[in-house]
């Protein structure tokens, strides 16, 4: 039975721990020069309705390093929902590729694609959630010896898809997600309520960045106006001006707190240059780990499918070679 990764709801704690272990092993193997070919002859469709640097490159390189290949597809080429129905696109792609990654606006589109596809579908980003990003961030924090069941993560800024996925993380980990955002820019209230009822972690929505940062293990931020919100940028700037990670805010956190940003960054807006480039910043290790964690996701979702497909045995291959030599000698 195929599995999708659209949100943290598709994962158990055991699933995530396994992904972290696989990511750590694949990362270490890569650095030691060991190569993997588990996804040889496997293909991943990459559907992009939003521009990307990290999502596209990390998935493409991940597939290459596992011996597979990827196909980049834009909305102009598909016209999903207009030129061709989502269900038809899903069924056609399922006959061509072994998995689909989609980076889009409406989360329902990713859900609909997964519903009709017979191959795994991965959420590379929607306006509601960004699970691959936060999985990589959690993996990065574990690498830096942060206890994910005790950590306080202070997210400062817009209650967007990244904030929502941090809230989802509290469903599996005992961390405290403190979301500091201006009134009217809160994360999904239904998601907050659901995770607060069912998760081992805790979620707090506050209006003061100082309150969120006090004693935090991690300070995290994102741009104040995400893709699709560019028209709101001038309106948002004065509203979010005090929701900035700077030295004053960093002093409120624990002395060895880490600073994270999912990128791209607008230095001087949501984060100051000195903090972004400072010794407590792990922004670029965080960005690199997108690839390693996504390799683990692809390995987990696609390698089993590769094994389940019929393969030529060594004896069949030898028989085929003998037959070819016989034909040539006639």
UniProtKB/TrEMBL annotation:
Aspartate/ornithine carbamoyltransferase carbamoyl-P binding domain location, by residue? 3-143
- Please tell me where carbamoyl phosphate binds in this chain: 103, 130-133, 262-263, 290
The protein's GO terms of the molecular function aspect are:
amino acid binding; ornithine carbamoyltransferase activity
PANTHER family per UniProt: ORNITHINE CARBAMOYLTRANSFERASE, MITOCHONDRIAL (PTHR45753), ORNITHINE TRANSCARBAMYLASE, MITOCHONDRIAL (PTHR45753:SF3)
The UniProt similarity line reads: Belongs to the aspartate/ornithine carbamoyltransferase superfamily. OTCase family.
Region feature (Disordered): 309-330
Q: Which reaction does it catalyse?
A: carbamoyl phosphate + L-ornithine = L-citrulline + phosphate + H(+)
Q: Major location, coarse class?
A: cytoplasm
Q: What are the GO BP annotations of this UniProt entry?
A: citrulline biosynthetic process; L-arginine biosynthetic process via ornithine
Q: What keywords are annotated for this sequence in UniProt?
A: Cytoplasm, Transferase
Report the EC number(s), separated by commas if there are several.
2.1.3.3
Q: What segments bear the compositional bias annotation Basic residues?
A: 318-330
Q: Which GO terms describe its cellular component?
A: cytoplasm
What is the protein's given name? Answer: Ornithine carbamoyltransferase
Aspartate/ornithine carbamoyltransferase Asp/Orn-binding domain location is 153-298
> Pathway it acts in?
Amino-acid biosynthesis; L-arginine biosynthesis; L-arginine from L-ornithine and carbamoyl phosphate: step 1/3
For the ligand (L-ornithine), the binding residues are 161, 222, 226-227
State its location(s).
Answer: Cytoplasm
